[in-house]
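Training component of the fellowship. As part of building independent skills, the fellow (R.M.) carried out the full modelling exercise for a liganded target. The chosen ligand was cytidine-5'-monophosphate. The inputs are recorded below so that the supervisory panel can assess the work.
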Amino acid sequence: MLPQDRLIVALDVDTLDEARRLVEPLSGRVGMFKVGLQLYHSVGSEAIDLIHRMGGRVFADFKFHDIPNTAAQAARAVTRRGVAMFNLHAAGGREMLSAAVRASREEAVALGQASPLCLAVTVLTSLDERVLRQEVGITKPLERVVVDWAVLAREAGVDGVVASPWEIKAIRAACGQEFAIVTPGVRPAGSRQDDQRRVMTPAEALRAGATYIVVGRPITAAPDPREAVERLLEEG
Ligand code: C5P
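Fellow's submitted model of the complex:
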């Protein structure tokens, strides 16, 4: 069984109606809904408010990457929205990461609410070692970069990382049991991979050490999303 609070559903849709069609039946059965740039820039913060009104929790997947002061103010603003989780790029460096974490915690305390989990994005899974070397100028092996950035994030006070299922073991070994690992690229056994390449099933990802798994299309494109969730929870 996959505990339902470990499942995050990616709401990669354009309209509030589509979001509502998913949030309504699922809000009691999943841990969080991920609001990314597509939905946010289509309907604005109404997406977050809709999920909260329906009793759901929000992962704000906005991947902040800016100078420390700007990232910190963005972290404050997203914390004021009452989200349960948000993220930023580890590539922004230690000062940016710690400024954002500090600002978010201060804001949560000032509002008397729980601090959202703050996650770092390490190397985007769309990049490979060749691109990293030739286009970005990073010459270390990819897994080394992922683990080094995860360690940097942890030292800066960040609560966890977003990572591909294939990186979980190395991150867990370097960052310990308390560090959160949120992993997309998860597909139920026997389902379509879509454009995801190196996938794992929910059970495999949990066994490898994932804290949360993010699933989009296998749920959002299913004829009956609620049933797709029930199957996934059972299978995991
Ligand atoms: O539909 P699917 O299950 O592939 O959706 C996965 C979600 O996780 C999407 O919102 C995608 O942008 C996100 N994601 C990912 N791989 C990453 C980081 C985020 O698939 N490395």
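The panel noted the following from the submitted structure. The pocket of cytidine-5'-monophosphate is lined by residues 10, 12, 36, 124-125, 162, 164, 184-185, 194, 196, 214-217 (CB under 6 Å). The beta strands are 7-10, 32-35, 58-64, 85-89, 117-121, 160-162, 180-183, 212-215.
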